[in-house]
Design a protein that fits this description.
single chain, 3-stranded antiparallel β-sheet, 8-stranded antiparallel β-barrel, alpha+beta, 196 residues, elongated
Length: 196
């Protein structure tokens, strides 16, 4: 079952009580992505093992229990289920069902201004989230560029952008990350500038 989950959503980090419980898990509003087009459900894991599930005009109160490491028991309308909890990052929680080949994907909307009610809203949320992440990574990172068979650098994207503006180099020069060994990813300065 874990293989199935990790193939579907790579780079998951198992729930870590010290790291996740207080700051990312408790009292956060987790919108269930599975089935959002039929009905929106917001899960709030509260202190004292209370789980509040909000749907339109109704609120259901049930319970959750943390067992060993990242294994939880959650009381649902269908009975008690056992899940393993994982984080994709601070805003994405995955609960992997231990007795079935399925998982529930949640988005933390506690610090998100817009509402998430549809699959399109989920796409917008993810697009914006990862665009910001990529932009900050690119902005802080350094790259080498190759021009006329010579390599130059490393430079930040801001420095490369300035060189392009001053017409010192072409925006179509290939670049490589300082940690990459070659230019096989075919990334150009133009591609980096676009992400800023």
């Amino acid at each position: 079952m874990n293989e199935y989950l990790h193939d579907a959503i790579p780079n998951l980090q198992p729930f870590d009580y010290e790291l996740h419980h207080d700051s990312l898990f408790i009292n956060q509003q987790w919108v269930l992505v599975n089935g959002i087009s039929k009905k929106k459900s917001v899960y709030t894991f509260k202190e004292d093992h209370i789980l509040e599930i909000s749907r339109k005009s109704s609120v259901i109160e049930t319970s959750w229990t943390l067992h060993i490491n990242n294994i939880f028991e959650i009381e649902t309308e269908d009975g008690i289920i056992t899940v393993k909890a994982y984080f994709k990052d601070d805003d994405i929680l995955v609960l992997n069902h231990q007795n079935k080949k399925e998982f529930a994907l949640f988005i933390n909307t506690s610090n998100y201004e817009d509402t998430i009610n549809t699959i399109d809203d989920v796409k917008v949320f993810l697009r914006e989230k990862y665009k910001q992440k990529v932009t900050s990574l690119i902005y802080e990172h350094e790259f080498y560029y190759i021009e006329k068979s010579k390599e130059f650098g490393p430079f930040t994207v801001e420095e490369l952008s300035e060189k392009v503006k001053n017409e010192d180099i072409s925006m179509y020069c290939f670049v490589r990350d300082v940690n990459a060994y070659d230019y096989s990813n075919r990334l150009r300065i133009y591609d980096l500038i676009k992400e800023l």
